[in-house]
Amino acid sequence: MRLHVACVFGFIFLIHYGEGKLWSKGVVHYAINKKDYDPHSQDMIVSALDRIEKEVCVKFFNTPLNYTATDSEKILYISNPEKRKTCPPEQYDYTGSVVDMPIGYKCLNEKDIARIIVDMLRASIEAPLTINSNDLLRKFQERNDNQPNILAASDRNFINAHYHEECSGLVRPQDRRRSNGGTMEVTPDNERFYKDKLWPLGIVMYGVNEFLHSTTEFATLQHAMSAIELSTCVVFQQVSEDGAIKPKNLLWFSDTGEEMPNLGFTAGNQTVTLMSMIHGAPGHSGHTLNLLLRILGVPMMSNRFDRDNYVTVNWRNVQKTKEHYLERMPAEAWLRNTEGEGAAYDYDSVTHAPANYMCNDCSLGAQTVQPIQDHLWQRTLTMGHRNDLSPADVELLNLLYNNQCQQRFINNN
Ligand SMILES: *[C@@H]1O[C@H](CO)[C@@H](O)[C@H](O)[C@H]1NC(C)=O
Ligand SMILES: *[C@@H]1O[C@H](CO)[C@@H](O)[C@H](O)[C@H]1NC(C)=O
């Protein structure tokens, strides 16, 4: 156990660090078992988390089911395997990668959920700490609406005081050696990251239900595919619903299915709704292209590991359960040049989020993604408004797919 003396706002703290149980960076990644709770109950849980988030610095991020949790990046799993009704006091086990937090059916109300979450957070804090900074504690007591607090002051203060340091870790700027020079290259680290994400031979097979064939949405989708084909070596190849060729791996566009395609190659028949491909992110001009790049394995520019040097994410404005679309991705996802410098941050990339990306309510000009140092609002206005590939997008795709496309050319000869 480490002892650490911090001086915050002129008050002296004595902070004990436990065995690293605190939720890393003050973020609780959670998943709700959809089989145990109906949609209404899921909404209830999400809205309770939302309210709690307004009172503590800890954030709750809904997380895709295949999130790979580790001992240091744990996941909170909300389920009710025993179909229990009540919610007796729980022992929380922080030793593994999954922390179970059952919620019984009779406890599906804000008050009980809040109590359960407080217990869970308290269990993540090991050693007590003497709190005596009024400033720090007041920070989360100031409310700008008239809703009463859902947490007791003592719980709120306890959690905020212990998570104070951890919570500031979400936006720590990183390495920023940048350049426009040198030749970009794919390093072994990049290769490891992209290995399973690239479509073999640079070919994406796709199909669509017959009844969607003549929709403007499908035309828009194909138009975006052509734009990628024209400037890169990747091809999109349509299969017919009852065609002779039944590819093992394909994308299927339908009126039901996933709202967001997976990042990169996916084995089998991945069904995505056509509407969300076209209209899924209001305000993002390049949304369809961005999702096609996502399918090809390319993460968004605004998720770059060092993006906090360039944009600020206002987590409070982000729509509940969409947070993971704004989380940073590993450094290995971005290429460097031969001098080991990263490419310049590209506000112009078609994969850059617009200022209102995944916003809960930005009708009054609130922003989720806010450029740093944007004196003339220039970036705010252009970000996410490109509707073709930027030169850097083209360069990236061609570098990533170079080997796969080469294989295709060899096979054809
Ligand atoms: C994400 O989830 C889907 C299944 O929902 C899976 O096919 C895909 O491979 C997963 N992505 C990663 C990176 O594991
Ligand atoms: C892919 O799955 C969808 C349903 O999710 C189905 O309608 C479609 O026919 C399937 N396509 C192929 C080629 O198997």
- At the fold tier of CATH, the topology name of the largest domain is Collagenase (Catalytic Domain)
Percent of residues in beta strands? 15-25%
The structure class reads alpha/beta
Distance from first to last alpha carbon = 64 Å
* Low-confidence blocks of residues: 1-20
Number of domains: 2
If helices are DSSP runs of H or I spanning 4 or more residues, what is the number of helices? 10
Strand line-up of the largest beta sheet:
4-3-5-6
Rg computed from alpha carbons, rounded to a whole number of angstroms: 23 Å
CATH structural architecture of the largest domain: 3-Layer(aba) Sandwich
Helix share bin:
25-40%
Net shape: globular
Order of helices and strands: EEEHEEEHHHEEHEHEEEHHEEEEHH
| Ligands, ions, cofactors | 2-acetamido-2-deoxy-beta-D-glucopyranose
Largest sheet: 4 strands, parallel
> What is the number of beta strands?
16
Average pLDDT score = 86
CATH class division of the largest domain: Alpha Beta
Characterise the protein shown here.
The chain is α/β, with parallel strands linked by helices. It folds into 2 domains: 19-170, Collagenase (Catalytic Domain); 178-412, 3-Layer(aba) Sandwich (Collagenase (Catalytic Domain)), CATH 3.40.390.10. Helices cover 28% and strands 16% of the residues. It contains 10 helices and 16 strands. Strands 4-3-5-6 form a 4-stranded parallel β-sheet, with helices on one face. It has a 4-stranded parallel β-sheet with strand order 10-9-11-12. Strand 9 (203-208), helix 6 and strand 10 (235-238) form a beta-alpha-beta unit. The site of one 2-acetamido-2-deoxy-beta-D-glucopyranose has 9 residues, from strand 11 and strand 12.
